[in-house]
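Q: Study each token:
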Amino acid sequence: MQEPSLSLLRPPQVTELIRKCQTGCVKNLTRYNLQFFRKLIEADEFYFRLVYSHIQRGKFFQRFDKLFVHNGRHVYNLRSDRINDSTRLYSIEQYVRGLKLADHRVLAIKSPIYTPTMLPRSKYRPMLLILNDHNKLLVIDFDTGELIDTIYLGSMERCKFTYIGWEKYMETILIQSTDLMAQTDGRVISYNILMSIWPLKFIACFDIECHIFERQRSTNISEGMLILSNPQPPDQFVNIYSLTDILDPENYKWYTDIDKHCTNEERCDECWRSEARVVGRDGHGFPTNIIIKTKPRLLLSILTCFPCIEFGYNPFHYIYSPPGQRDTFNVERLEGRVPVINGSITFDNYLEEHNKLLFHDDPVENRIISIESHKLAFYKIINNVLTRRGELSPTPPEFFDDLQVRMRNQRKAKKNDNMYKSFFSHVYDVDTEIFFVLGVDLSSDKPTTPVMCLFDNFNGQLLKKFPLNFKAEESNDYDLWADRDLLFINENNSFGPSRAMCYRLERLPIEI
């Protein structure tokens, strides 16, 4: 099927309007024609202009199109023209006084409604969820900053909840406690809460007890699986169980929800600690309504360097680091634990916080991404063989052809040959199917000037490349976020001020 061209788009007067205006300011449906918008990005007469740059001490938080500055207290729209008091959307200082915000305490949820519903629209507002230090879940309107609700999760005597995240496999909110071995006399490893959204509903609360899961210390839930690890320095022994078996109806003591009166006072662990009887209110948290009686089905048991194991692909595969080899990643098929041929990748100049092997965000393509020091490589499993399918890099491939020869001969070596890392960050824009790659072009004469490269997701073709007007540091961490005509760069500096930069797609000035 042939892609639509600009001449086929209607109405023509709207197309002409976009050509004459800055695309970030045009509010019409044509802007959301993704094929059309991709052609604007590829066009030579359009470029990404720096709209604003903001510097502060400490880390920036970015969630969708919102930027959280000053320790997450003040919220701005990324599409603004500047960051100052006049453009501030709202402040959450009154809700989080004394709380040190971190990534694991904040969750933003913003998604369209796909199914018809009889509930009021207010139930489907985009939400900002924050865990405070008193086991309370703050529900804030993501667009206006209005405090919608405050939900009490549980007694501090039982545990302290410090993590909130999105479990995409089950499309639920996951809230977890920290290590409770000392607080519960070694009986409970962690408490876990599952909630559904739109509207917020309580699903289950269960604890991981030591007499069921022997010799386990840390808990994680991902992709519908319960992941338990037991440190055996310098490695981790990881057991992965089925979460579906835990949520079996036979394990439920009773069902309840927010604002419902607790009907099982004799068996409820929250009723013992408080006189309140309304779930989620006035000192009565979510009761432990699931009891794990027997160990669930064991899906995988493995010894690895890191407790974090990547799952993906179709059929299901997993990526892990073998014992004692932190710079090596292996790919195996989950069913039968069949190793993939050529499925062991070892990184040169290994950086633990940078080099990774993970699954591509686009599940249709079924690809594996290797984040290397100077490149972003793509792999695909064909007939159980891991095959390299291409690579993306801010440096032209010709530069690496004779790199080893130049390094052996110091007279021919270039000053950029010794750079430890030239690939800083990347992001994949699903709407336009474009890879944004941030790094340094080693073949240029300015090794500290970063460049932004735009690549086609399917064939790796370089669509656009342009320099950025700031000085890059190898020791800093860079996060990218792209949304059609908007490009956001978050530079985190552990030893100095951090910086946030916003670029917007605009048309080159017309020379008269």
Notes: The chain has two domains: 1-88+416-512, 92-231+241-301. The mean pLDDT is 79. The helical segments are 12-20, 34-42, 243-246, 398-401, 403-408. The first strand starts at residue 46 and ends at 56.
